[in-house]
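Data card: per-record layout.
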Amino acid sequence: MTNSATIKAHREPLFHVVKRDDMPAWKAWLIRAVTIVIAFFLVGFLSMAVTGESFSATYEIMFSGVFGRLFEGRFTMLWKYLQEIAILLALALALTPAFKMKFWNCGAEGQALMGGLASIICMIELGNKLPYPVLMAVIALTSILAGAVWGIIPAIFKAIFNTNETLFTLMMNYIATQIIAYYVYLKGGGSNVINPVSEGNFPALGGNDYFINILIVTVMTVVMYIYLKYSKQGYEISVVGESQNTARYIGINVKKVIIRTMLISGALCGVTGMLLVAGKDHSININSVGGQGFTAILISWLGQFNPFIMVIMTAIVIFLRIGVAKVADTALLNSSFSEIIVGIVILMLVGCEFFIHYSIKFRHNKKEGKA
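The structure for this 371-residue chain is written out next.
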């Protein structure tokens, strides 16, 4: 009896998770591609089940919601789609250096709001007092500085006092939101809205109001790829992310890297705030970022911290968000339907990454020989 009890007590669990050896890149990307195709089929079938439309009709509605009358030469909806990609991608690019360093910056929302606040203050207070080129330079500089300050505060506390950066950056989001709410209350005459400001907006190149935002984020994407892959600072970020002890051993100043990287991350979030205020909404409120700072975390991670892959992931997420919202609107469904669908697709992609990097090993039952 004693031996039997001992065997049961030491019995292995039914299954355990084991880290895989490095999977060939082609195989990993094949799995991701198949997952995306399955996800799009699932989106179609779920939409069919809820709306009663056919599979093809569902995707026709989605494409019209995203691209409008593209084949008739009307590109307005396409430009709006590209701008939505640009805003979410900008946030993901801003978070990527910090996350690659394994500094869990969950404060993109607040850092972008502070950048947007700096923009709107300059637009309102200095709009009629400075020449347009000088005004735009001041808006850009103050937005970058505001985002950088909001990002460097938790970095300093992390580097010196080893505080929890996740909680710190999350709490700073709430502080930023309340600052914005107070400013909007003051300038909105007690309402929750500031009327669109006409001074200090980005110019419309070729009559296109969206081009500047898209151009800026395109440049950000290329520069971030070069910075992370080919610069010395990008190498230091990778080493610190792999092991801080190793980084210290080879002479890297870890505290300096943490502060510098969060300075860059916050500054780029500030740029995103400027894009939202001066390039898109021409106003600000507590929902200007719209929770996209948290979606950007998933975009950065699913894109393997590669800016060009992140472009693809962002395009998929925005397509689903806009397209399914159009399906929901056509079928008179709640607007939350699109967020549910996007959440399901992201969950599938996260699950795909799990099985690329890990495998599940089940317990093998072995028959005991009789003594």
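Known properties of this structure: The chain has 14 helices and two strands. The radius of gyration is 24 Å.

See the next section for split statistics.
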